[in-house]
Amino acid sequence: MIDITKILKRAWNILWTYRALWAIGLILALTTAGAMPRNNNSNWREDASNNRPGENFEWPSGETIQEAMEQMRQEFNRVNTWERISTSEWNTFLWILIGVVGLAMILGIVMTIARYVAETATIRMVDEYERSGQKVGIRQGLRYGWSRTSWRLFLINLVISLPVILLIVLGLGIGVGIYFLIIADNPLFSVPGVIAMIGLVFLLIFLGVVLGVLLQLLRDFFWRACALEQVGVGEALRRGWSMVRRNWKSVGLMWLVMIAVRIGWSIALVIAFVLSLPLLLVTGIVGLIVGGLPALLVGGLSSLFLGGPLPWMIGAIIGLPLFLMVAFSPVIFFRGLELVYNSTVWTLTYRELNALQSLAAGDNPPQIDVEQLHQGKDDDGAE
Question: How far is CA 18 from CA 12, 59, 237, 352, in A?
């Protein structure tokens, strides 16, 4: 069995002494889904707590909703702003929108490349530090990441995502089929049949969630087999699965511990968010400047050949991402530290399991054990 406590402490020590990993973590946070803080629905809970079972509460009727929608439509049409937009201006706006979407797609490709370069860099930087005790700089770390291994990590992620995608597509297909059969009022489609198909959809959703969690756990070992042992996609899948299968108790226990760690990080993120409100106010003002100036510039230029609110819609599309990135930069940085820590834990776990496997086989392990590097490496120079 692996020493989970020692791995967690060692990963924490690496996180706070290896400053080059902070920059790599920032790239991970900017290019990985879930970098921004999630809505905790506190307002909803507060509103819901005021509506207690003893109080009278009436849901709005359909007529009330229709009247409200009609009134909103009349108020909206009362403003003649949209009517002043000509057909040529709409066409120009659509072409500009297509250009913005194209730029967004290019940006998405760049962010995907940056993500897998950062993933590879984090794994290999930690491994290099554990093997030789050497801390490399940001530039050398990115060189580690800019390799064929990054492409292989992308392919591994794509391969293990296919089963979940197929389950989602199958569930959506069944759901659409149920909808059309219901609206067609098909007499051959009975109520028990509808219930059974709805149950099948929920079963597929459940299987998709379970399969997604399992594949994400396996992915951490597939990635490290590929990055640390420099093997292809197929061989990485085989070696990663073999290691998890032989050490399923240690892997399962570490997975449970990491769930608790992620919960702890989430709580710490909320506390950090509250404590950093003055800093967020400053970054919010800076974000207004960084995002507002390009938005005003683009909106002003667009207003030369577009009318109505269209120029400012384009300006908002350009300026809003910049504002969010700068305004929430402290939260994004904290999220990057979390991602680096999680990656470091799994890299150390893979290394120790590999070392234990080599010792059990009677071979000299090619890598240094975690315990051997626990002493004296924290004072090494970092770039």
Answer: 10, 56, 30, 20
Give the C-alpha separation, 295 to 311, whole Å.
9
The burial class, CB within 10 Å (0-12 / 13-18 / 19+), for 210 is exposed
* Residue 60 backbone dihedrals phi, psi, to 5 degrees: -65, 140
- The two tokens of residue 174 are 């069944």
Using pLDDT thresholds of 50, 70 and 90, give the confidence band for residue 308. Answer: low
Per-domain residue ranges for the chain? Answer: 8-35+86-155+247-373
CA count, 13 A, side-chain hemisphere, 15: 23
pTM for this structure? 0.72
The rounded distance, in Å, linking the Cα atoms of 357 and 243 is: 9
**Dihedral angle of Cα 115, 117, 123, 128, to the nearest 10 degrees:** -150
Question: 280-301: per-residue pLDDT in tens?
Answer: 888 888 888 888 888 888 777 7
Q: Please say whether the beta carbons of 198 and 179 come within 8 A.
A: no
The separation between the first and the last C-alpha atoms of the chain, rounded to the nearest angstrom, is 35
pLDDT at 323 (0 to 100): 86
Angle at which helices 191-229 and 148-183 cross, to 10°:
180
Q: Is 338 helix (H, G, I), strand (E, B) or coil?
A: helix
| Mean pLDDT on 25-42 | 64
Residue that is written with structure tokens 């290999």 in the block: 124
Separation between Cα atoms, residue 238 and residue 123, nearest integer Å: 19
For 141, the 3-state DSSP assignment is helix
The Cα 319–Cα 311 span in angstroms is: 12
Give the C-alpha separation, 144 to 138, whole Å. Answer: 10
Kindly indicate the confidence band of residue 32, based on its pLDDT and cuts at 50, 70 and 90.
Answer: confident
**Residue 126 C-alpha from the chain's centroid:** 22
Query: Average of pLDDT values for 312-324?
Result: 81
Region 53-58 average pLDDT = 45
Cβ neighbors of 327 (< 8 A, separation 6 or more) are 280, 283, 284, 286, 287, 288
Q: How many CB atoms lie within 10 A of CB 175?
A: 15
Does 192 or 292 have the greater pLDDT score? Answer: 292
Q: Check residue 373 and report its DSSP letter.
A: G
Coil, strand or helix: which one is 378? coil
